[in-house]
Amino acid sequence: MRMNQTIAYSMVVLGAAFWGLTGLFVQNLYAYDFSPLQVVALRLTVSSVVLLILLGTMARSYLKIRLKDLPYFIGLGVFSISLFNWFYFQVMDLASLAVAVVFVYTSPVFAAIIAKIFFNESLTKAKIIAIALTVIGSAFAIEFIPLGEFSLTGQTIIFGLLAGFFCSTYSLLGKNVSRWYHPFTITFYAMLSGSVFLIPTSQIWNNVGALGNGTVWLNIFGIVLISTVAAYLLYTIGLTYIESSKATILSSIEIVIAVLVSVVVFGELLTGWQLLGFVLVFVSLFLTIFSFKYKIRT
């Protein structure tokens, strides 16, 4: 059954926009003394429960996996989801939402470098230019250019780069299971594995008193239902009917939404140089996508 292209594009854009709202709920939860690690634990645990209910009710066959594939799901859950989210949320806490999103969008650069080292994929001119633009754009975003000094601490910069790195590992680690399982299956078991890892690690029980607050649950359900489950479902369904390269381009609306939330809701001030940095990272994303698309066609 074919879907109207306008609807498919709209679903992808809306899904990405919902991802862009992540920081809104995260920052609100920080106000109730949740640590970044505890927020990640809440996100993955509640999302796992919601996905289990959805799949168990409407698509039970998606819950079946082979035990030999379990290590891949654990790797995805611990490295590509748990650690990525943790470093991403750490940067939100230490710097700003807008800067955190810029670091996440360095992930295509890490993916290109890892693919070159481990899979011997060629680094095209477009990819090299994209890497250079990402480095320069990130330097503007953290105001190393033109000030000659970092506006962020070394720890924040390292956390940001690690967020980009672990984000890039999702497609690489998921390669081995994506040919056998539906994306919903991969997402559920990866999140479940992340939850099992994070519940004891985050010591969420130390802040259990805050869970009695209704506003806390509004934000938990916001990050789960809007920025995780709905975002993923909309993006994945829309992706089924349009080219992946176009979907990736459309998903960059996440940057725009995140920056708007950062400025409008939280009153974070951005300099002209930082905005230039965001634009350069944005352009590098397009170059990476078109380089990949050209490679497929040739």
TrEMBL record:
Its main location: membrane. The chain crosses the membrane at residues 7-31, 37-58, 70-89, 95-119, 126-145, 157-174, 186-205, 217-235, 247-267, 273-292. It is found in: Cell membrane. Pfam families: EamA. One of its GO terms (cellular component) is plasma membrane. The keyword NADP does not apply. Residues 7-140, 157-289 form the EamA domain. Keywords: Cell membrane, Membrane, Transmembrane, Transmembrane helix. It is a multi-pass membrane protein. Belongs to the EamA transporter family. This is Threonine/homoserine efflux transporter RhtA.
